[in-house]
Design goal:
The protein is α+β, with helices and mostly antiparallel strands. The protein is 16% helix and 39% strand.
């Protein structure tokens, strides 16, 4: 084992938040964030950048969930209010709010979220299909439910019952 990786594992185990699972498991990284009181996550591979909200220029007659446009290094980017897109209660941005730059169908888009929490590494066993958990009325933008496993101080793996994350399907969410 490399010295750097053992230090990371030791530091993580001391904090009680070690997410390391057996090395043979394929895991995908998900970026966790909050919108309203709900906890969500999207595939980390789809997030290009996380920004503090820059000044947003409103666009007349735009849909209600479109906050406006911003210039990111000279590129005009549309910013979507994730709360409104998901039908949650709108709220003005706070100091914790962030804009996630994600690849849409043919352009880079910004998603305004209330707060970015952390990156989760989920194995297939930690992801449940949305329909099996939420029933048939699940929105097309929900890809599944993530339940990250947590390693306790003694190294035992616990199910992340209190760590449930709604995994969003960005392609479906951005096409609606």
């Amino acid at each position: 084992m490399a010295e750097g990786s053992s230090r990371r594992e030791l530091s993580a185990s001391r904090s009680g938040r070690n997410r390391a699972l057996p090395s043979g498991e394929d895991r995908e990284e998900y970026l966790g964030f909050r919108a309203d009181r709900e906890m969500f996550a999207v595939s980390r591979a789809l997030v290009r950048e996380i920004l503090k909200p820059p000044p947003i220029t409103e666009v007349p007659r735009a849909r209600r969930d479109i906050l406006g446009i911003v210039s990111v290094r000279g590129q005009i980017t549309t910013v979507i209010d994730l709360r409104r897109r998901l039908g949650l209660t709108p709220n003005p941005p706070t100091v914790a709010s962030r804009v996630l730059l994600v690849q849409g169908n043919d352009e880079v888009l910004g998603l305004l979220v209330d707060e970015v929490t952390q990156v989760y590494r989920l194995s297939p066993q930690e992801i449940e299909p949305a329909a099996s958990v939420l029933g048939a009325n699940v929105g097309s933008h929900v890809a599944g439910i993530g339940r990250p496993r947590i390693r306790g101080l003694r190294g035992e793996v616990q199910s992340g019952i209190d760590e449930v994350r709604i995994l969003l399907d960005l392609a479906a969410l951005l096409s609606s």
